[in-house]
Amino acid sequence: MTAEGRGAPAGVSRVVVVGAGVVGLSCAWSLQRLGVEVEVVDRGHVGSGSSWGNAGFVSPSLTAPLPEPSILRYGLRAVVDPRSPVALPIPPTARTLTFLARMVGHCTSARWERAMRVYRALNEQIFEAFDEQRAGGVQASTIETDLLVAFRHPSEAGGVLAELQGVAATGQEVAVEILTGDQARAVEPHLSAEISTAVVVRGQRYITPSAYVSALAHQVRIRGGRITEETAVTGVQRRSDRVVVTGTDRELEADAVVLAAGSWLSPLARPHGVRVPVQAGRGYSFTVACHDPLTVPVYLPSPRVAIAPDGDRARLAGIMEFADADAPPVRGRIPSMVRAVRPLLAGMDLDDRADEWVGPRPLTSDGIPLVGATRTPGVFVAGGHGMWGVTLGPLTGRLLAGVLVTGRAAPELRPLNPLR
C-alpha cells in the first residue's frame, strides 16, 4: 500500500486527538472544517506541554533542523559546563545518551541540507496556515514584525549568517540586514551597550502562545468539539473497524486517532510501528517587567535565549535540557538564564520575574517531525516538531486533516513519514 493510502479509513466521521497543544488543537480545528467530529484528550490541560510558555516566534527564516554541524563543536563542551544553556541530567540515562548519539550522526552538512529542503516545503506555507485559522475564527493576534538577532562580539554572527545562507540556498526567501550595536539599540532600546552587532531578519511574526492556544481551544469547543483535560491516554488499539483509545477512566471509540502527545508520544506510537524516538528537550521561560514595551522580538544566540513581548512585560525563553518530560524543574536553570542575559539587556527588571514555566519540546534525532499514518489503520501521528511546534502547528493540522479525509498525502508530508 502506498504512503498516501496507508491507514486512511473510508468515511472518517469521528476522530480522537490525543494532545491539546497547538499541534493537536490545529489537527482538531482542521478536521472540523472538513466536517469531522472531534474529541481532544490531554493528560494535563490545554497547552500544558510545550505550547504554553515558549517564546512564540513564528519565524520561517529561522525554522531549520536542530541537528547541524556546529553541534559537534559546541555540544560536548556545552553539556559539561554548568553555565551552559544545554543541559543533561546527572547521571544521564541510557535512553538520552542513545538519542544524543543518533542526533550527532545527523550533524553533517549534507544531512542538514537535505533536511532543510524538507523544511523549505513547509516553511513556505506557515503564514498561510496561520492566516487561514484567523479567517476561520481563531481570535488571537499574529503580529507581523522583524526579528533582531543580537551579538556581543561581531565574530559570533558568523554561525547565524551561515545558517541563514543555508536556508536561502534551498530557494526559501530570507531578507536580512546587518546592524551595528548603535543601530540595533535604535531598533530595540532594551539591548545594552555590550551588544556590538545584530542581524535583522525581515518579515517574521510572533504570537503570545498561551493566548493563541486558548483561542484555538475555544474555537474547537464552539464548533462542537469536546476537550477532555486531566485524562492520560494509556494505549490505542484497533478493534475490528474502530480505533479504541484507552484513558485513565474510560475508553473512546472513533474512526481514527491522531497522536499529538508531544514528548509523551513514543510509548503510544511505538506499538504502531513508529520507531523514531521522541526525546524531551525541556525549555524554561519567565516574564519580566520592562520600563518601556519591547519593540521587536529578540534572539540572543550566545546564551540561546529568545525574548518576546508579552503584554507590558517581556517573556524570556531558553535552555535545552535533555531530561524526562515529567521531571520536576531544576531550580538553578532560570537563575542561570538571568546571569547569562543580564549584561546584554537594559531597561528590564530581571529580578521582577513571574510566570515561571518549564515545558518539554518533542525532539527527533534527525530534526524532522513525524506526521502521517502509522502501521495500524486509523492511527496517525503528529509530533516531533522540536522547537517549531507553534510555528508548524497550524500547517501540520491542515496537511494531516487532508490525509485523514481524502486518504492522500501532500508531497511535502512524505519525508515526515512516521515509519521512516
What do these coordinates show?
This protein has 420 residues and is α/β, with parallel strands linked by helices. It is 30% helix and 29% strand. It contains eleven helices and 19 strands. Strands 3, 4, 5, 6, 7, 13, 14, 15, 16 and 17 form a ten-stranded mixed β-sheet that branches. A hairpin with a 2-residue loop joins strand 15 and strand 16. The longest helix has 18 residues, at 389-406.
Write the layout of secondary structure elements.
Layout: E1 14-18, H1 22-33, E2 37-41, E3 57-58, H2 70-80, E4 86-87, H3 94-105, H4 109-123, H5 126-135, E5 143-151, H6 157-169, E6 176-180, H7 181-187, E7 197-206, H8 209-222, E8 226-228, E9 233-239, E10 242-247, E11 251-254, E12 256-259, H9 265-269, E13 278-290, E14 298-300, E15 305-310, E16 313-322, H10 333-341, E17 348-364, E18 370-373, E19 379-383, H11 389-406
Parallel strand pairs: 1-2, 1-12, 2-8, 4-16, 5-14, 12-19
Antiparallel strand pairs: 3-7, 5-7, 6-7, 9-10, 10-11, 13-16, 13-17, 14-15, 15-16, 18-19
Strand coverage percent: 25-35%
Helix content: 25-40%
Structural class estimated from helices and strands: alpha/beta
Q: SSE string, helix = H, strand = E?
A: EHEEHEHHHEHEHEHEEEEEHEEEEHEEEH
Which quaternary structure do these chains form?
A: single chain
In total, the number of strands is 19
Work out the radius of gyration: 21 Å
Distance between the termini: 15 Å
**Overall pLDDT score:** 93
User: For the report, how would you describe the main beta sheet?
Assistant: 10 strands, mixed
What does the overall shape look like? globular
Q: Can you tell me the residue ranges where pLDDT is under 50 for at least 5 consecutive residues?
A: 1-8
